[in-house]
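Here is this case:
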Amino acid sequence: MLTLNLPESKPLIKAGKQEVLLVTNADLRESANVECWPVQSKFETKLEDALSTRFGYQAKRAHLYKGDKGHGFISSQREGSDLFASIDPQAPVIVLLTAWQYSHHLAPSLAKHRGPVLLLANFDGTWPGLVGMLCMAGTLTSLGKDYARLWSAEFDDEFFFKGLESWLKTGKIVHDTSYLQRVDAKHPAAATPAWAIGRQVGEYVLQHKEIIGLFDSFCMGMINGVFPQKALVDIGMPMESLSQSALLVEMAKVPAALREECLKWYEARGMKFKFGSDPAKDLTRDQVLEQCAMLIAMARFTERFGLSAVGVQYQQGLAQSCAASDFAEGAIGSAERFPIPDEAGKIIRPGKAIPCINEVDMGTAIPQTMLWRLLDSLGLPAETTLHDIRWGSEFAGTFYWDLEISGSVPFAHIKGGIAGATGYRQPAMYFPKGGATIAGQGKAGRLIWARAHYEGTQVVLHIGTAHAVELPAAEFERRRRATTYEWPLLNCTLDGVGRDDLMAGHQSNHITIAYVDEAKLQDVLRAFIAQAITQNIEVLVAGDAADLM
């Protein structure tokens, strides 16, 4: 006879008639959670006030402040799963996000929750919640879950109040996403020579494959950055799964003399490193030498496996084992690069950028590698990178985005190139082993931007154009200090795509960019779209890029 002895379930947490359940999520790293908690506490109070005074609702916190931890965030998948096991599956839930958050803590439970779900973020560059919300939104889209999204700087504007009212009444918020227009092979631009070029590149990819080598995957809870294998195979871009432990082994093989030669090469070209003496809080030469070993090891893996692109998982595990991967990532993604020898002494891909898939995000691996292949085939600069959609604000009457990656970009994307770059120590709250960033001001120029997501196993690509600008020194400094000072920052406008457009329709915390000369922008855009369609990718063109076609 069978005997069942499951753990006892807790009584369900329910929402009353004029109540909503409040849930909040953040980092896996408790040091970051403690640092971010005061901002979360501030916005919880703002939300509670808005709900009660404006709409007669009460916010009922579904989980308690953790006094022993110094914060009230959900900070693991187990904790999030246990929480939702005790929540009434029909209850309305607001997920308030004011910091970076690991979506997998909550997403598996939210995907099965039957009540209305609102993802609510503060629009601020400090930690920031808007990045976390975009990540969770893209994650829930990939899991096929309906949800609403809302954002506000201070939770006191009419946009915020109207959105909140709509969700309280209907469980939905309808945003205008008409800035996105579907494009297929019947578009009039299909008759242009540029389209034919793009089709040829797409056919080449399908035949020969662009293999994307990733040292582990699933960085920082980004379910939206982990694509089904079938989705990658269908577009001719399969993954080579590598282990970060193997990367550490390969790094150990790099002799000290070669590490020194590498670092001196960059110093000779003018890169500045902010060295100090205390490795616990300062950047040290030994940390950068270890990053040089990683750069060399990554290139050797790329050559050994015939990879088109390479990426490092970057956070958990590796960050506890060695210096951060940032310098290695930015350097390998640059055409102007230290001549890296393979084991036999042959220089690996001289003068060629090797696309670096930051944070092993497959949603950026796809457009980065596609753009690299297209631009390189056309004899154009082919450096690509991702950025966080970190923040944005007005200057002189124009809204400029602050796009910021957590540590590195190709040198060609920085004003002044290698000589314009500064290596700061990665913040200790994230990277106990240190390591240099590649920081600097993003150079002015024209951009193509893109982002891939998936629906089922169908890859969908948003494509647009942008203007990168070099803001005045004082304004640039203000924005650096409002975000993360040690990281590279690019300011831009997205052509025909406003702040609230992107927040309403973008399916990721990341955006991919490549610089393209103004005179060639239209042709490259057409070719890129044709390449994507040929590779079985569904294409949505954003804003003014539709007119440029």
